[in-house]
Amino acid sequence: MEKHMESFLNNLSFTSITIATLTLLLLYLQNPKTCINNPHQLPNPLKPNQKFPKSTCNLTHRAFTTVNKHNRRIWATKSWIRTVQSFTIQFQSLQAQNLFSNNSRVLVVSAGAGHSVMALNKIGVNDVNGVELVESHPLVGRADPHSLPFFDDVFDFGFSPFLERALFPARYVGEMERTVKGGGACVVAVEECGGEEVEEVEKLFRKSKLVEVNNVTLGGEKRTSIVMKVVK
């Protein structure tokens, strides 16, 4: 009796598995009437701000957005314009002190999305190299700030808006000094701080002398700008 029952249960299990498999196969092969066969023929494609479809039945064609078009949208926002303007004011002040000119070769380390690079371009500086761990084309290229891909003494002016983001501050600053010519300037910005913190930053520079320290506002944040003159 037990053997018959065991055989019956085995047959029942096999039959159930077979039916379930065939059902799933049919569901997979079937094209529901509510699904869209050709998304390219849709009269009204999704707008960029609409959510992604939850399934293939909601699939619609999304127009391709070029990098230039995407950048133009970002650069037209009030936040972007305000941030660029704050950097422009900072650079105009530094330029008035003859720390660099429109003909200078400028390096921007930890350039982020490129606000500072655009600000330099706007005041007439065309030879600007902005670098960041993540590329932000066309303003910022990808490079490790702790190991810059440039020869020694190739820049007239170096700038970093976010020194505190450096994993190894001494090496970070050393790379700025290495690539900036003697007589050039390195300017770094950190979170707003006082005398002791400024001294700590100054000690990171082995080949530069402190010129001045100012409190500035960059991108809506209060920061301290430290100007160093490279001596080689």
TrEMBL record:
Bilayer-spanning residue ranges: 12-29
Cross-referenced InterPro entries: SAM-dependent_MTases_sf
Record keywords, A-Z: Membrane, Transmembrane, Transmembrane helix
Superkingdom classification of source: Eukaryota
PANTHER family: F21J9.14, METHYLTRANSFERASE TYPE 11 DOMAIN-CONTAINING PROTEIN
Protein name per its UniProtKB record: Uncharacterized protein LOC104246714
Source organism (scientific name): Nicotiana sylvestris
